[in-house]
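As noted in the main text, all predictions were made from sequence alone. Below is one such record, for NAD(P)-dependent dehydrogenase, short-chain alcohol dehydrogenase family.
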Amino acid sequence: MEKRKIAIVTGGANGIGEAIVTAFVEKGYTVILIDKDEKKGREVCKGWKENGYQAEFKWCDVGNYEAVQKLFKEIEMEYERIDILVNNAGISKFKDFWEMSEQDWNEVISTNLSSVFYLTKQAALLMKEQGGGIINIASTRASMAEPHTEAYSASKGGIVALTHSLAMTLSDHYIRVNSISPGWIATENYGDLREVDHFQHPSKRVGRPEDIARACVFLSQEENDFINGENIVIDGGMTRKMIYEH
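Prediction:
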């Protein structure tokens, strides 16, 4: 009997992360959900286990390298290997540029960007012998922005750059690394969105978490291994739209 493949999803308790967990669980993966929201994370995993699926919650501050190292020692002892890592954890913390402190900056950078390096390094050590896939969740804010989003935009731009660098470094071990840049993804109250919210998108709707989750599953499939070092923008066409004031 073929062993279940194992996927790790960070920030998997809510929003896009929860949708990614759902997608991999439904594909037959054993999913390790990592989050700081212990209550919700355990609820999500309990729900899947009650329906016969395999999901386990583990708490971790992914912006702390020592905590990540400790976590992966546990994972190695319990599972011995992993196949897919989705670096989704992040915080959307926008603060006025003139009031932003060093602490504010470091919190966003460590949680959103440094965590990708930390998790990838530890995951790659478990993937080195058999290969695997790493998917990093960036953002269209890597290439476009609103005022006072400096830390968040920098973290997401860093993820895109880190992705192609890691793809080159890890290629000798058949570990492929890609990123996804979501645009506007409504994680709650989708029905409350206005018509103008939807119709400003060339695809005529605001995105859903499942749009990103399906792309993660696609990139994880071995038959798609010719996609490597790439950043896939999923934003309903918004970053391709020229906007003029009339």
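The chain has seven helices and seven strands. The domain at 6-236 is CATH 3.40.50.720 (Rossmann fold). These features were considered when defining construct boundaries for the mutagenesis experiments described in Section 2.9.
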